[in-house]
């Protein structure tokens, strides 16, 4: 059986071609700089287009140049097909960037804190269980500075905790391990601004027959939608969503108490339940705590206390 021809380096990485080897994923890329400045592309644009792998930069060049010279575009499309057949990965720019970041982490974090990582290799004893949204803009480790070993974490659409009766889910499995095996002392549920999952909850049609994993999942928080509509139904849709983003956190906090082993530890005072809300529009963080005990004001067993805003 004949083997595939060796894949030669088709184009140098963006970093090699245009930025003296420096990371470029979040830098202003040369082709975009040219476009923003309204400069003619011509041979300069083609040189840049040919100077990078098939990632977003080269695709931008391709689209722009194709409008000027369709025959050139035709040749380029043939090139794309040929290199896809040879296994050229048009997303390789991004993975190269991750490689650079990983090696930087290894050099400046892992190797400089080797004692700490050797301890972590023996086991973990995080104080926090964090439930956050899968949204790419709200990474808890990034915004709250959790270091390896400090927080057991699960991220899902709209940072929801289903009630115990909901049955098995990856979130309930993570809770069981964090509470019963790791014995975390804090569970923090973090909501956030402009949450797509909450928007889906607020817009989903009742009694729809079409199948949607997202709708099925966010339905876990339908009580938060109902209480939002009752409380602030007169406000704009965006304002209702903001309200529901926080209301759903409280709904999740109450759902945590439906897990018998969580309720037991909260009652014993060895586990605390906290809500959080990260607003990335003005970069602020609200934090509060769910208090659960008998004989509180008004006869309720629940109260939200210790509000604070970090800004
Ligand atoms: Zn979200």
UniProtKB/TrEMBL annotation:
Originating organism: Vanilla planifolia
BP terms from Gene Ontology: carbon utilization
Cofactor: record remark: Binds 1 zinc ion per subunit.
InterPro entries found in the cross-reference section: Beta_CA_cladeB (IPR045066), Carbonic_anhydrase (IPR001765), Carbonic_anhydrase_CS (IPR015892), Carbonic_anhydrase_sf (IPR036874)
Reactions accelerated catalytically: hydrogencarbonate + H(+) = CO2 + H2O
E.C. number(s) listed in UniProt: 4.2.1.1
Cited function: Reversible hydration of carbon dioxide.
Keywords: Lyase, Metal-binding, Zinc
Protein name (record): Carbonic anhydrase
SMART domains the UniProt entry points to: Pro_CA
EC category: lyase
CDD domains: beta_CA_cladeB
Record family assignment: Belongs to the beta-class carbonic anhydrase family.
Pfam families: Pro_CA
Binding of Zn(2+), residues: 133, 135, 192, 195
């Amino acid at each position: 059986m004949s083997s595939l021809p060796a894949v030669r380096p088709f184009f140098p990485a963006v970093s090699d071609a245009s930025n003296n080897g420096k990371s470029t994923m979040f830098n202003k890329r040369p082709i975009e700089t040219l476009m923003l400045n309204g400069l003619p592309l011509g041979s300069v644009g083609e040189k840049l287009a040919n100077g990078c792998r098939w990632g977003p930069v080269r695709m931008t060049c391709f689209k722009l140049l194709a409008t000027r010279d369709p025959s050139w575009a035709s040749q380029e499309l043939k090139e794309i097909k040929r290199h896809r057949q040879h296994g050229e990965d048009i997303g390789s720019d991004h993975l190269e960037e991750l490689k650079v970041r990983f090696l930087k982490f290894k050099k400046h974090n892992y190797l400089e804190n080797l004692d700490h990582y050797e301890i972590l290799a023996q086991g973990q004893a995080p104080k926090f269980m964090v439930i956050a949204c899968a949204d790419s803009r709200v990474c808890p480790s990034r915004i709250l500075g959790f270091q390896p070993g400090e927080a057991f974490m699960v991220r899902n659409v709209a940072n929801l905790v289903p009630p115990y009766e909901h049955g098995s889910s990856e979130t309930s499995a993570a809770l069981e391990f964090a509470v019963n095996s790791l014995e975390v002392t804090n569970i923090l549920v973090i909501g956030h601004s402009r949450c797509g999952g909450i928007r889906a909850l607020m817009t989903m049609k009742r009694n729809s027959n079409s199948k949607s994993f997202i709708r099925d999942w966010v339905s876990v928080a339908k009580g938060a939608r109902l209480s939002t509509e009752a409380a602030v139904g007169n406000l704009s849709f965006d304002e209702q969503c903001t309200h529901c983003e926080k209301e759903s956190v409280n709904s999740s906090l109450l759902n945590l108490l439906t897990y018998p082993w969580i309720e037991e530890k909260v009652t014993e005072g060895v586990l605390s339940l906290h809500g959080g809300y990260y607003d990335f529009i003005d970069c602020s963080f609200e934090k509060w705590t769910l208090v659960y005990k008998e004989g509180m004001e008004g006869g309720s067993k629940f109260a939200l206390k210790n509000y604070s805003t970090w800004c």
